[in-house]
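It is worth pausing here to work through a concrete case rather than discussing structure prediction in the abstract. The textbook approach is simple: state the sequence, then state the predicted structure, then interpret. We follow exactly that order.
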Amino acid sequence: MENGKDYLQRTLVLLKPDAVQRGVCGEIIHRFERAGLNIVGLKMLNVSEELARKHYSAHIGKSFYKGLEKFITESPLIAIVLEGVEVITTVRKLVGSTDPSQAMPGTIRGDFAHHTNESRDAKGLATANLIHASGNEKEAKQEIALWFSENELMNYSKIDDKYTF
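Step two, the predicted structure:
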């Protein structure tokens, strides 16, 4: 810890049903690993309506919520906990804008998601943008606790950790 700030963080990433269905999970995970991030939790699961409501509680009652819940529960997803130096910022940069039409080339959404929020909203569908990434440290801690138990998370060192931490 330097100047009272702990630079090593954890964050939650969900590879949503569209990522699983399209078979791009390996490529997405590879991008996180290439960035030097540690995978400390990983599992595939079907999301219950109850878990969807807890995860997206801030959106219940909004016009798009029903489509979002239907989308996230329609098939399996992959939940990941990543660890690294300022991992939340790094992951958000790698992922790109939540609106695929605004995501820059080279980001996960920019390379793999090619529609607009507006076009999906017009059909009453959730935006199939491949991935969820925690927005800040408080959110990351809450989301990790929702999706993973403590005994599902690993602690380990990689050979290159001595150069980055």
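Step three, interpretation. DSSP finds nine helices and four strands in the chain. The radius of gyration is 16 Å.
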